[in-house]
Fold this protein.
Amino acid sequence: MNAVNNFLFIGLPYAAIAVFLVGAIYRYRATGFKYSSLSSQFLEGGGIYIFAVLFHWGILVVFLGHLVAFLFPNATLAWHSNAVRLIADEVVIFTFGLAMLIGLAGLFIRRLARPRVRVVTSRMDIFIELVLLTQIVFGLWIALGYRWGYYWFASDMSPYLWSIVKFSPQIEAVSAMPWGDQDAYRRGLHHSGTHSVYPPGALPGGAVSLHMAQLSKSDLVLGPQADPQPRNGMD
């Protein structure tokens, strides 16, 4: 099990980051004109606006929520020591997560259903959108089952992520989570971590794929249903 945990929580994140960076640089230098997907809005404008707005605002708010908790864990714990603020913020983040899911699902269905859009759609476009949809579903699924994510993200996940950034991985908290009740959490974490391996630019805004690796792991992915108290590990 130690070898598995070392691969999933140490080897895989570094491999994903390395492949992302090398792939992004290579694609930009070798095939810059293909760095992002073709825009299909000029082919089919009707019906795209509402789904595009839902997706882009959803991903922006969810990402910023994760980023703040990652950069300022102590301030996050202090701010959410008030139960009203904690519940309000989790409701807001979950709502924007739903908006992101509805928006991306609408854009995906449109991409497959409209002949003029489908003709400029590659298999990689479809693959990446399915990856994103699955990742979002995992995040929302965990959000319903494991609440108080601002607390356990700031106390457990943020130190782990910072240890990865500092090249001194500390995986005790994340590897201590059991496979049973928290299997959904692990799946979301591993699935999101591998997302950045896929070719950058395969989806519009492909450079965001590294940030999407955080999408299923914090306030959208809320912690166990218990009193919102800081903890040192996920027991």
Q: What stands out?
A: Confidence is low (pLDDT under 50) at residues 180-184, 193-235. The longest helix spans residues 83-113.
